[in-house]
């Protein structure tokens, strides 16, 4: 039916062919941005991770993570932990540990059941109802403990040197929860629009990428049911530049 459609609809008055100029054509799009700026994405758990280096006690760190729709990080498997250990976290802010050995609050607590020479106890996920199944091995105990404490908080020690980092070397500490430390937050992957705004579930948005004329629905942190608009070239302008973040917006470069 293509010839019939062309003959009926592409003929203007006087039999002349009407010409349509499109600036861009919809192409398959790969969406690689699933976390806000400053967060690291791990496909295995569809999660985002960020280290905060400003130093807070455990309870303040919990609240900071909650404010960004996350929680202190827990891990489901060794693969997820290895991903965390392999990252090179930003070090611009003040850190509270040696640069070659940094420790982060994570979402576990060590419950002391017997105060003998070995400090018997066990690890628990800090928040009940979590589906996480990975629990740390026996910890190294921190130095700032008191006799009254029955619960200690988990710190994961990572190494800065690339060789040590990529070999997955690390340690687990059970530390006084009121000590100040950097901390690791974890949140579900999310939709991020072309202007780096976080998009809520079910809302329309334009994903980050090369096409500002794409409109998608956010579903489980992924853009779905995307529709692309095509733009007519600007009239009376020979040279122009497309705005990378606004659909069908151009800047004329003619003198």
UniProtKB/TrEMBL annotation:
InterPro entries: C-type_lectin-like (IPR001304), C-type_lectin-like/link_sf (IPR016186), CTDL_fold (IPR016187), DGCR2-like_CTLD (IPR034010), IDD (IPR042378), VWF_dom (IPR001007). CDD domains: CLECT_DGCR2_like. Signal peptide: none annotated. Residues 44-186 form the C-type lectin domain. GO terms for cellular component: membrane. PANTHER family: INTEGRAL MEMBRANE PROTEIN DGCR2/IDD, INTEGRAL MEMBRANE PROTEIN DGCR2_IDD. This is IDD protein. The gene is Dgcr2.
């Amino acid at each position: 039916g293509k010839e019939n459609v062309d003959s009926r609809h592409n003929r203007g008055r006087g039999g002349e062919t009407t010409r349509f100029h499109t600036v861009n054509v919809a192409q398959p799009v790969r969406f690689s941005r699933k976390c806000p700026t400053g967060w690291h994405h791990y496909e295995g758990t569809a999660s985002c991770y960020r280290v905060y280096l400003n130093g807070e006690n455990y309870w303040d760190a919990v609240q900071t993570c909650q404010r960004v729709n996350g929680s202190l990080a827990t891990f489901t498997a060794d693969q997820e932990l290895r991903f965390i250990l392999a990252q090179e976290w930003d070090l611009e802010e003040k850190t509270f540990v040696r640069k070659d050995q940094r420790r982060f609050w994570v979402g576990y607590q060590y419950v002391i059941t017997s105060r003998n020479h070995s400090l018997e106890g066990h690890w628990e996920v800090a928040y009940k109802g979590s589906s996480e199944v990975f629990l740390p091995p026996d910890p190294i105990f921190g130095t700032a403990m008191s006799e009254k404490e029955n619960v200690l908080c988990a710190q994961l020690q990572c190494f800065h040197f690339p060789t040590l980092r990529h070999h997955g070397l690390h340690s687990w500490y059970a530390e006084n929860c009121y000590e100040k430390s950097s901390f690791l937050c974890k949140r579900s992957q999310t939709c991020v629009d072309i202007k780096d705004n976080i998009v809520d579930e079910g809302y329309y948005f334009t994903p980050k990428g090369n096409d500002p004329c794409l409109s998608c629905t956010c579903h489980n942190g992924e853009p779905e049911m995307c529709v692309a608009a095509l733009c007519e070239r600007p009239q009376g302008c020979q040279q122009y530049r497309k705005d990378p973040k606004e659909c069908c917006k151009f800047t004329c470069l003619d003198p």
